[in-house]
Task: structure prediction
Amino acid sequence: MFEPKRLHPISAVINFVKGLKDAILPILAVIFLNGGFRSGSIEWIPLMVTAGFLLLLLIGGIVRWLRFTYRMEEGELRIEYGLFFRKKRYIPIERIQSLDYSEGIFHRPFQLVKVSVETAGSSGDQKAEAELTAITREEADQLEALIYEHKGGTGVQIEEGEEATEFTPAEPKRTKVFEMKMKEIVLMAVTSGGAGVVLSGVVVFFSQFMDVLPIGRIYGQVVDWIQVGVLIIAFSVLIILVIAYGISILLTILRYANFQVNIMEDDLILTRGWLEKKQTTIPLNRIQGIRIDENLIRQPIGYASVTIISAGGSALKGDEHQLRVLPLIKKSQIGNVLHHILSDYEMAESLVRPPRRSMIRYMIRQSWLFWLAVIPISYFFYPFGLLSLIVALLATGLGWLCYKDAGFNITDKQLTLQTRTFIKQTYLMKKHRIQAASLMQTVLQQRVQLGGVRVSLKSGVGGAVATCMYLNQEDAERVLVWYK
Amino acid sequence: MLNEPARRISERALTLWRVYGIIQFLVVLLINIGLLAAVYFWNWPMWLTAIGAAVLVGEVVLSIWLIPKLRWSRWRYEVTEKDIDLQYGIFFITRTLVPMVRVQHVDTEQGPLLRKYRLSTISISTAATVHKIPALDEYEAEELRQSISALARVAEEDV
Result:
C-alpha cells in the first residue's frame, strides 16, 4: 500500500452535501428574504448568487476529493489534502489507537465505509486524528490488517506494495458479550432524556421566531387573541411536545438499532445504527473508569445505562453515544455483564453514606435559589405566583434524593462513588487510574466535621470529575488515605 | 488520620498579594473619582457615591488586609517521593493529593511583580488536571520543579 490512494468518488458528493448542510441557512435567507416572493416578481440576482454558490460548493467537493490521498509508508499513515493549502498529515502507526467505521446512506449502496482514525490523545499533543470519508470495505480491512500487523510486531518487513495488498489478515476472534433487543431499545427511547433535548430545540426555535416578529406592532392584537385562544395555544404546545417526544424516540431507535458489544483481542467493539451503521473501537487499556447512570424515570423501574470513561482519541469529542457500552440494562444485570467485559471492575455491595446531619444541607443546596425566587414571584404575581412554591418543594425533594443516593465504597483497588445532581451517577474507578483526589470543606463544614470528596479521571482530551459531598470528615479522609 | 502538609509558601507572598490588593484598590479609587465627577457635573444621584465609598472601604479591609492573610495562613504544601499534597482556600478549603506517577510535567512561571519579589508560581500537570502552588520563593520553586520532574517517572503510555 505504498502508492497514494484516492477515496471513493462518492466522497465528492458527500463533501458537497456536507457543505450544503452547513450553508443551508444563508442560502434560505438569500432566497426568502431578498427573493421578493411576496411581491410576485422574482429578483434574479439573489438566485444567481445562490446558484453560483451551489456550483462553487460542488466544485469544491470534487476538488477536495481529487486532492485527498492517503497511503501507508514507512510505518506511517500519510494523508495529503487541502483545497487551497496543501496539507500533509503523517500519523505514526504506533499512535493509532483504533479505527472506527460508520456507514451512512451514501455508503450503503456501494459497500463503502467512513473510517475515523483514533489516536492516543495525550495532553499537549497536536491534533492527529484523521477521517477517510469513503473507502471500500476491502480497503478498510486492508488498512486495519496493516495496522494490526505493524503493531503486532511480527517483524515482517513489507518490502513491496504488491505483497502488502495481497496480505490477508487472520481476523482475530470476536466474542459477543452484549446485545439489545428491539423491545429494550424502544424502552430506552421512551425513557431517555432525549425528549428534553428535542424540546429545548423547539423552545430555541420559538424564541428565535419571536425575535423576528415585529412584536410591538402586533402586540395589541396578540393580547386579545391570547385571551380568546389560551386553550388553543395550550393544545398546540401539547401537540408539539408529543411530536418532539415521538421524534426523539424515533431517532433513538434508528441510532441504537442492532446494538451489539463484542470483544476482539484487547478491544471493545460497539456496533449500532440502522440507517447509519456505526462501529466504535475502544482499546481496553484506555478505559479509565465506568459510569452508571439512572435517570428519574429509569431508576424506579430498575434500569440504568453504563458509559465508559476512556482516555481515547480526540476525535471522540465527548460524544457520549460512542462510549455508552450498555445503553439500557436491568441494574441487577450490570455486574453480570460487566464481568464479561471488564472483569476487574465490580459493583459495590454496600456504600458508606453521608451522616444524617448532612440531609438538611443537601436539601438547602438544591433548593435555596428556588426558595429565594418564591418570595418576589409570589408577591408580584399573586395569587398564581404561589404555584412557584410547588417548584421549590420539588427542588427540596430532589435535595433529599441526592442525600439518599450519595455514598462511596472502597475496596483494595477500586473506589465506587455514587452521587446525584439530577441523574443518579455511580462511578467505578481503579486506584491507578485516578489522576488526583481532593477533600473539600467549607469553614462551616469544618466546624461540624463534614467534608466532600472529589476525584479526577482522564477522559478524552480533558478530565472527568466525580464528587460526593457532605460526608463525615473521617470517611472523606479515609478516601484520601486510601488513595495515598 | 491526615496531618496538614508541612510546608508554607514564602512569606513574601503576603506582601505580593497586598500589592495586588492595593492595585485593585487604586482601580476602585479611580472609578470613585469618576463617580464623584459624574455626580458633580451631570447630577447623578448622590447615593451612588455612598455605594462607591462602601466598596472602597470593603476593598481596604478585604483585599488588602483580610484575604491575603487568610489565604497565606491556609496555603500549605508537601512534596514527598510518592505524592504532592496541597491545602488551600479561604472559605472553601481544598485538600488535594496528586501521586507522583501521575505527574506529566511541571512548569514554573514568573510575572513582573513576582520577579520583583523573587517569587515564582509552579504548576503541576497530570493527564487530566493542573495544580498550582502560587508565590514560592524562586529558588525553592526551581528546586521543587527539578525534584518533581526527577521523581515523576516517565509517564506510562496508558496514563
In short: Confidence is low (pLDDT under 50) at residues 122-128, 154-169 of chain A.
